[in-house]
Specification:
The structure is a homodimer.
Chain A (H helix, E strand, L loop, with lengths): L6 H9 L8 E3 L6 E3 L6 E10 L10 H18 L3 E11 L4 H18 L2 E9 L3 E10 L13 E4 L5 H9 L7 H12 L5 H7 L5 E4 L4 H12 L2 E5 L7 H7 L3 H7 L6 E5 L4 H6 L5 E7 L5 E5 L2 E2 L11
Parallel strand pairs in A: 4-5, 9-12
Antiparallel strand pairs in A: 1-2, 3-6, 4-6, 7-10, 7-11, 8-10, 9-11, 12-13
Helix pairs in contact in A: 2-3, 2-6, 4-5, 4-8, 8-9
Pathway (chains A, B): Cofactor biosynthesis; thiamine diphosphate biosynthesis; thiamine diphosphate from thiamine phosphate: step 1/1
Function (chains A, B): Catalyzes the ATP-dependent phosphorylation of thiamine-monophosphate (TMP) to form thiamine-pyrophosphate (TPP), the active form of vitamin B1.
Pfam families (chains A, B): AIRS (PF00586)
Chain lengths: 315, 315
């Protein structure tokens, strides 16, 4: 519905050629896509919106915007230990700009191919630039956030703080050498969905989520869902080297409170910790869960540590 | 990801109480919803965006906006002869207005309950008001738009032109009595997904779609997908009585070219026409398909008729 000028041309020229993978009976172009669900397991689905000026600068490289939009959605599937199958795209554009669309669709379909997920439908409308993507995957062993228990160890899957530290560079407020600029753009626009780690820990972890709003804020969701409290020890945090070089003394704060890294935060019961450590995943134990009122307490070298911000605002 | 101020409160207070129906293993609140796909048939999925100032006035009743947003998506399922299962909502709001959200979520969940579809996830972000909904349904006998053939009869499932004729009333450009105002609002905000008609014709129809952009524009999609041409005879169109009373002499044009009615346009092979007519569905034969170059030709009392507009712009 809601044809904007050129809607059908946009779909035909830039998106209808999307390769169609597993389970796609009928792709883009009808009232609905028709999909054959896998016979095993459950479907996992998630939806995220990125708004220009809030989640990315409006003048950013369209291919990078597309990559980020799809990757943050895929990260939700990864955090659930679901493998990607299909996605749909709602693209709202101020104007039909063929050059912008060519770069955007190229970035989108390249990312889709990399992760083996098929674009099966969507909608284009005229309006302020925003991108909503819905992903659907399949999981046989879902990682939920409500299964954590007292005494479980808390883990981070990899370096934290890079995307938050990159933000001033992305926004043009911090000038850095070209190589660092490139690293900052990779950290912000190309987060890595943690599919391999999620699959590896799925037999052992009691809960997991992806760190999109910041470690402290997201760990609080595990605590709320699982009715536990958390103590984390900031000296153990895997602070990203990019965050250290870009943010200096502020890197620790960004690792604890900054968002957009899309690493996993997960918990492991005491009797499974050894099994997880043996996997050699490069994950880091950063704290412990206890009974209580769903609070996250932060410590730094034995002293209570107060987060400068509870969550994270992009712009 | 992308927490806006109050995002979690919005979800908890206004949407997390959504009743969870068939196949919902885990609803709102985790990285993904977990869904058990039906063992039979295929999944059908569609996604539509409504942008304030383009698809509805920004100051419209939030419950009506919500109803329309969900109904136009459900209409895509109906047009595919799919029964609704689940939907997700991406809501972009300029500000967190509890009063607005209460009315919106009430309208949304009421509509969901009416059609037996479960809200299983979504995203709320700060930005210019827009609503993207993705629906997922199940179908055993999908109605596609690429199965029509030469000689098939073209049908409209019910009255056309009401929503287009209602638009000046909705926009406040045409003053009418309260009762007519109410009819106009029903026509525009509460289109009826044609589930019953789709199910009834699914054994006989060769193609179908919902008329969202206007009969002529949407019939052209059947012609393109099925590689046929169409002749429609405008004197046969089921012009809505509301369109006649609101638009007078312009009602026929609105019925042929105006959008947003969400009636079905479908085609029936010659040997199935009698079966369809016997169903007593109140559908109307409006033309015939022939070989050719995917054109829609309009006739009025034997004379060629030129559409004033090919498609339809809301605002």
């Amino acid at each position: 519905m809601g044809a904007s000028p050129g809607e059908f041309e946009i779909i035909r020229d830039f998106f209808a050629s999307a390769p169609q993978g597993e389970g796609v009976v009928l792709g883009i172009g009808d009232d609905c896509a028709l999909l054959q669900a896998p016979s095993q397991g459950q479907l996992a689905t998630s939806m995220d919106t990125l708004v220009a000026g809030r989640h990315f600068p409006a003048d950013a490289d369209p291919a990078a915007i597309a990559a980020r939009a799809l990757r943050v959605n895929l990260s939700d599937l990864a955090a659930m230990n679901a493998r990607p199958l299909w996605f749909t795209l709602a693209l709202t554009l101020p104007e039909s700009d063929a050059n912008w669309l060519r770069k955007f669709s190229s970035g989108l379909l390249q990312t889709a191919a990399q992760f083996g997920v098929s674009l099966v439908g969507g909608d284009t409308t005229a309006g302020p630039l925003s991108i909503t993507i819905q992903v659907i995957g399949q999981t046989a062993r879902p990682l939920r956030r409500d299964g954590a228990g007292c005494g479980d160890s808390i883990y981070a899957s990899g370096p934290l703080g890079a995307a938050a530290a990159a933000l001033p560079v992305i926004l043009g407020d911090q000038r850095v050498p070209a190589e660092v600029q490139h690293q900052a753009e990779r950290a912000f626009y190309f987060p890595e969905p943690q599919f391999a780690t999620a699959a590896a820990i799925s037999d052992f972890a009691s809960s997991a989520l992806d760190i999109s709003d910041g470690l402290i804020a997201d760990l609080a969701h595990i605590c709320e869902s699982s009715h536990v409290s958390a103590d984390i020890y900031l000296e153990r945090l895997p602070v990203s080297s990019l965050a250290q070089s870009l943010a200096g003394a502020n890197a620790l704060s960004l690792s604890a409170g900054g968002g957009d890294d899309y690493q996993l935060c997960f918990t492991v019961p005491p009797d499974k910790v050894e099994s997880v450590e043996k996997l050699g995943l490069g994950v880091t134990a950063i704290g412990t869960l206890s009974a209580g009122d769903a609070k996250v307490r932060c410590w730094h070298n034995g002293e209570p540590w107060q987060a400068p911000t509870a969550g994270y605002q992009h712009f």
